[in-house]
Amino acid sequence: MAQTTKVFGESVLRKEDDRFLTGRGNFVADMLPPGTVFAKFVRSPYAHARIGSINTAKARRLPGVLDVLTAQDLKDQVGDIITAWAIPNANLKTPAYPPLAREVVRYAGEAVAVVVAESPFIAENALDLVEVEYDSLPVVTDVETATKKGGAPIHGDAPDNVAFKWTLAGGDVDKAFKEADVVVSQRFVNQRLQPTAMEPRAAIAQFEPGTRELTLHVTSQNPFVHRLVLSIVLKYPEHLIHVIAPDVGGGFGSKIPVYPWEAIVCHLAMRLGRPVKWVEDRMENYVATTHGRDHVQYVDLAAKKDGTILGIRARVLANLGAYLSTAAPGIPTILFGFMVGGCYAIQAGRVEVTGVFTNTTPVDAYRGAGRPEALFLLERIVDILARKLKKDPADIRRKNFIPADKFPYATAMGLTYDSGNYAGTLEKALDKVGYEKLRKEQAEGRRKGKLMGIGLSTYVEICGLGPSAVVTSTGFAGGLWGASTVRLHPTGKATVYTGGHPHGQGEETTFAQIVGEELGLPVVDVDVVHGDTKLTPYGQGTYGSRTTAVEGGSIALSARKVKDKARKIAAHLLEAREEDLEFTDGKFVVKGSPKAAKTIQEIAWAAYMAGNMPKGVEPVLDATTFYDPTNFVFPFGCHICVVDVDRETGQVKIRRYVAVDDVGNQINPMIVEGQVHGGVLQGLAQAMLEQSVYDENGNLLTNSLIEYLVPTALEAPRIETDSTVTPSPHNPLGVKGVGETGTIASSQAYVNAVCDAVGVDHIDMPITPEKVWRVLQKK
After folding, report:
1. DSSP string of 608-630, one letter each residue
2. Rounded to an integer, what distance in angstroms lies between the CA atom of residue 730 and that of residue 550?
3. What is the pLDDT of residue 779?
4. Domain count along the chain
5. What is the pTM of this model?
6. Pairing mode, if any, of strands 213-218 and 409-410?
7. Is the distance from CB of 293 to CB of 362 less than 8 angstroms?
8. What is the pLDDT of residues 41-89, one digit of tens each?
9. Model pLDDT for residues 265-293, shown as the tens digit of each residue
């Protein structure tokens, strides 16, 4: 029976949680095809060294070892890893990124050989039998040191260690600073982070000689991108590569790239004729999986005495690590530079980004990917301006917001924001937290020696990565349209095939809600299929908070096509005109004759039986849509963090955390809230705890969960959420992205709060008790 209640906008329990919470998830590491052998990689302990020799003889003699390969063995078999974002007008250098190090290793953890054995334990033992002679070379891990004259070059074709120099400017920046009454400046360090997905990366490759089909099960956020890149790297026909990304235990951007070791596992499967499995452990994950952030930013803000912001300048050094990963050049440029104006009507801005090679793990997307770095510098410098002018930070923001009646709004940096009401989220957050009362309490407490701080963060982000003409003009190698097929089966049940690949976002549920709403079906009757290049339409995967807006938009359009076809069939069966039919509660009803009706299930049966079809209408009830949006979507909001600081120890305690976000129409408010919670905690982790640390020899010291601090329930504050709703005018569902909003907003909210408490302009992240204590000692 068709449902009688709406499901769009309802907090439906997540369909996927049943298998996850009962241990029935289907993860790559759990798979073991018959005859599987196991690959392990020999990784360099040196961050920069010339390879003198590699002796594999002892390892090969170990019983159970099937093969040991070095770069020489892969010559002409496995090509170099490619970058997919060749940003234009930046003199981009793309040094070779070999699958195994050739002649020189460039970061600690780079693979120099691979061992394949009958068991993972034998393979592990064999690693120690591979003898590698290294001649150490000078090491540089810091971006500012790397770009100094006379520094040690990491790549011959980038002798100054500069990968690119990218500039974005809008408005008359020089005029803005000339006319300013006040200019505030600050150096910020947005430290390197290590994505810590619950599931490390894994791959299983199988080759079928009879069909020549190569099948790869892999922890990927974008299976079709993996298939395309692997076809290039392996020099193997794309249509003969089958990529399956089953359940993925988190990605946060680190499972976007195609890694060398996935290509090598494929090569080994074809070479040996047996399934080859590789699963990294956490230590390998930390040195070999891409890192995130790692900027040094020099920022200037020009303003009038009344707080009107005139212009902004940012000079940024972005650490790219030793090689260019898949999307690396675009993260600190395109996804960063366009957003430095944030929520404000700033009429002039200039961003200069220098991408720098260092002897560190390659850097790529990490939750937020460029936008957290942009909004951090902006919201911090705005707070510094407020302190300089002795004005309330909320008043500075109010004064400079883009007015709600000015949307769509063309920014000085070249984007057009779709919709917004920034003042609305600010006022709602201030009211929810009791801002005026807190400020009075703060003033009274300071007279008694108490340190309480209030940090504001108002943000807007670019997401729903989509318009193909726009993204390809930035050098991105692929259109970012959404792809879907919605198919009703003879009994009226539905399957949705999507080119997105949810991996924790809850879209097996929200996509079912979209189809349920459009076709009047119970959510339980809608199955969502994703992650398999043989089953789904060609799609671009999940990242950049694009899946609900773009892939969900495609699904809505496919469902509407199905409904339009069903209307034709219903009109024929009811002997009525199409325009005389109403669709409600999952059935078509003739206006004025409620008993003259056909359910969507009855129409599906008729479409498959096909014995009584209207002329010109084909059997079956399904539709496919490739949806290329006309613009990005721009969610926004205001987060407020309230902290208490212990004057004696420097310990910071979060008293309140309020998040008011506007992500357009909400398909499932419970899932929205969950995404905000996770994002906020990830951003707070950067502000409070997380930081990659290298020693002077380029060794990663934070190479396990003992040294690299991720937040637990003990560090997590209670997060109070609320929302406003400003639909995107161009999206079929009026939705915007939510997966990264919390991370983009929360770091600076915390830092602003701590700086407000102790009365200083800035403290670099992570703000540890020791840093706070030292600031207090100086004061």
Report:
1. HH-SS--TTPPSSEEEEEEE--S
2. 11
3. 80
4. 2
5. 0.97
6. unpaired
7. no
8. 999 999 999 999 999 999 999 999 999 999 999 999 999 999 999 999 9
9. 999 999 999 999 999 999 999 999 999 99
Task: Answer yes or no: do 616 and 655 share one domain.
Answer: no
Q: Do both 583 and 600 map to the same domain?
A: yes
90: tokens are 């930046």
672 and 651 within one domain? yes
Residue after which a domain boundary falls, among 627, 642, 668: 627
What is the arithmetic mean of pLDDT over 221-226?
Answer: 97
- Asked, for residue 250, whether it belongs to a domain, the answer is no
* 423 & 488 share domain: no
pLDDT computed for residue 149 by the predictor: 87
Q: Which amino acid is at 127?
A: L
Instruction: Provide the 3-class DSSP secondary structure of residue 641.
Output: strand
Contact 606, 588 (CB under 8 A): no
How much is the mean pLDDT over the chain? 97
Give the residue from 627, 658, 679 where a domain finishes.
Answer: 627
Dist. CA 65–CA 361, nearest whole Å: 29
Neighbouring CB atoms inside 10 A of 273's CB total: 12
Closest CA to 97 of 361, 285, 293, 330: 361
- Domain assignment present for residue 386? The answer is no
Domain span at residue 497 reads 17-24+481-627
Side chain identity at residue 727, one-letter code: P
* Alpha carbon distance 480, 224 (integer Å): 12
Distance between CA 677 and CA 679 in Å, rounded?
6
For 711-746, the pLDDT digits (tens) are: 999 999 999 999 999 999 999 999 999 999 999 999
Residue the block writes with tokens 């991108």: 225
Are 590 and 698 contained in the same domain? no
What is residue 348's three-state secondary structure?
A: coil
Q: What is the CATH number of the domain that holds 706?
A: 3.30.365.10
CA distance linking residue 42 with residue 100, whole number of Å = 10
> Three-state SS for 187?
strand
